[in-house]
C-alpha cells in the first residue's frame, strides 16, 4: 500500500532468493553422482541417486526443467554404463526407474504449479481487499509528518484485522490504530465498519470520549447482527487526538499495546492510568472512557503498533521489545523510525513474522514560523506520565 504498505514484499523477495539457490540442487546431485561413480570405478551404485533427481527437481523447476532433469539423469547413467562395461539386460531396471520417476515428477510439478497459482491468486485478492479498506494515508497532516507500515505474515492468504487512520477535523487531529480479532472477510467487514464509524465520529463528535463511544456502539451493532465467531468479535484500539494548537496529546487506550513516545534519544511508553476493555466488550466493564493526557514536544515521534510487533518471537520464544531499539536519537522522520523497528523485528525473528503487523508513526514538526529555529525544542527527562496530574476520566452521564 504505497510507501507504507509493503504487504510481505521482503518475505517474497527472500523466498525467491531461496528458490533460485534450490534450482541448482538437481544439477549438483547429478554432478556429484557422476564424480562418485568415476572416482570409485563403479564401486558405488549411484542409480538410486540419479532416479531421485527428477523428484527433487519437481518442486523447484518448471515442467520443462523437471523433464529435462530426468533426461539428463538418464543420459549420465547411460554414459557411466558405457564407461564401465557393455550395457546388458540388467540395466533395464535402473533406466526404467529413472523414466517412471521422471513421469511421476512431471505430474507432481503440474500439481504444485496449480496450487502455487491458486495461492498466488488468493494472496493478490487479499492484498487488493486490504488496499481497498486501507488506502494510503497522507504524508502530512497539519504539523504532523506521517508514516505507516503494514507487514503481512503470509502464513495463509487470510486478510488481517489490523488498521489505522488519521483525520484532520474541526475538533483537532484524530488518530486511530486498532486490531480486530480474527482474520478473513468477517474481520474485514468489522474493520470497514469501525473505520467508517471513526471517520464519521471524528468529524461530528467534539470530544474524544464521544468518538470512542460511537465506535463502541458500532461494534455492539456488528456483534448483535452476527453469529458464530463474528458474534464474539472485539477490537483493541488506541484513539488519540491533538487540538489545533498541539498543546496536549489525548489518548484513549482500549486494551491495546501502549504507544511509544520517542524523543531526544529516550522512549516513553504511554501507559493508560486506568485500563479499559477493548471495543465490543464495554458491556462487561461499564461505559467509562478513560482519557490520558500527555505532552508531545516538537520533534517527538509517536509510534503506534499492533501485537504483530511486540508479540513477534525469536527461535527461543522470546518476545520482541521495541523500546531498546528506539532508545537512541533519530532525525525528525517517522519513516526512519518505523524502518528501524521493522529491521530489528526481522533480525529478531529471522526474517519471518508470526502475525500481521501494522505500524503508524507521526512526528510533530515545529510551526512554520519557527521551522528554522530549533533552539526552543524541549526534551523529556522523565516519562510523560499521567501520574503527574494530567489524567482525566470521562464518564457518560446517567440516562
From TrEMBL:
GO MF, one annotated term: protein serine/threonine phosphatase activity
Q: Which UniProt keywords apply?
A: Hydrolase, Membrane, Transmembrane, Transmembrane helix
EC supergroup of this enzyme: hydrolase
Residues covered by the PPM-type phosphatase domain: 144-364
What EC numbers are recorded for this enzyme? 3.1.3.16
Bias kind Basic residues: ranges: 389-399
Q: Signal sequence: where?
A: none
Membrane-spanning regions, if any? 21-38, 66-83, 95-113
Region Disordered: start-end pairs = 368-399
Q: Name one Pfam family in it.
A: SpoIIE
Q: Where is the composition biased (Low complexity)?
A: 368-382
The protein's name: PP2C family protein-serine/threonine phosphatase
Amino acid at each position: 500500500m504505497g510507501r507504507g504498505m509493503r504487504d510481505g514484499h521482503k518475505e517474497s523477495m527472500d523466498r525467491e532468493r531461496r528458490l533460485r539457490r534450490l534450482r541448482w540442487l538437481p544439477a549438483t546431485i547429478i554432478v556429484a553422482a557422476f564424480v562418485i561413480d568415476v572416482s570409485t570405478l563403479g564401486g558405488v551404485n549411484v542409480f538410486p541417486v540419479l532416479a531421485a533427481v527428477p523428484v527433487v527437481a519437481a518442486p523447484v523447476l518448471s515442467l520443462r526443467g523437471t523433464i529435462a532433469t530426468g533426461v539428463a539423469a538418464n543420459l549420465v547413467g547411460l554414459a557411466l554404463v558405457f564407461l564401465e562395461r557393455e550395457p546388458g539386460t540388467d540395466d533395464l531396471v535402473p533406466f526404467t526407474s529413472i523414466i517412471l520417476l521422471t513421469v511421476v515428477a512431471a505430474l507432481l510439478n503440474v500439481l504444485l504449479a496449480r496450487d502455487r497459482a491458486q495461492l498466488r491468486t488468493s494472496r493478490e485478492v487479499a492484498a487488493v481487499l486490504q488496499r481497498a479498506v486501507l488506502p494510503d494515508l497522507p504524508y502530512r497532516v497539519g504539523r504532523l509528518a506521517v508514516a505507516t507500515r503494514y507487514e503481512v505474515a503470509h502464513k495463509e492468504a487470510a486478510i488481517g484485522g489490523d488498521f489505522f487512520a488519521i483525520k484532520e477535523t474541526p475538533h483537532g487531529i484524530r488518530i486511530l490504530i486498532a486490531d480486530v480479532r480474527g482474520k478473513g472477510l468477517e474481520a474485514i467487514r468489522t474493520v470497514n465498519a469501525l473505520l467508517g464509524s471513526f471517520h464519521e465520529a471524528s468529524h461530528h463528535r467534539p470530544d474524544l470520549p464521544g468518538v470512542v463511544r460511537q465506535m463502541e456502539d458500532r461494534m455492539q451493532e456488528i456483534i448483535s447482527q452476527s453469529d458464530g465467531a463474528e458474534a464474539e468479535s472485539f477490537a483493541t484500539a488506541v484513539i488519540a487526538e491533538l487540538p489545533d494548537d498541539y498543546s496536549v496529546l489525548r489518548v484513549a487506550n482500549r486494551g491495546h499495546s501502549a504507544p511509544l513516545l520517542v524523543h531526544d534519544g529516550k522512549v516513553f511508553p504511554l501507559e493508560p492510568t486506568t485500563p479499559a476493555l477493548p471495543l465490543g466488550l464495554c458491556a462487561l466493564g461499564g461505559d467509562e472512557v478513560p482519557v490520558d493526557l500527555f505532552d508531545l514536544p516538537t520533534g517527538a515521534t509517536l509510534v503506534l503498533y499492533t501485537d504483530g510487533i511486540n508479540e513477534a518471537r525469536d527461535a527461543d520464544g522470546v518476545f520482541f521489545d521495541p523500546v531498546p531499539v528506539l532508545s537512541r536519537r533519530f532525525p525528525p522522520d517517522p519513516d526512519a523510525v518505523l524502518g528501524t523497528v521493522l529491521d530489528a523485528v526481522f533480525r529478531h525473528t529471522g526474517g519471518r513474522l508470526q502475525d500481521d503487523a501494522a505500524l503508524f508513526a507521526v512526528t510533530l514538526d515545529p510551526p512554520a514560523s519557527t521551522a528554522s529555529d530549533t533552539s526552543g525544542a524541549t526534551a523529556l527527562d522523565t516519562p510523560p506520565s499521567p501520574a503527574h496530574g494530567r489524567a482525566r476520566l470521562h464518564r457518560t452521564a446517567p440516562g
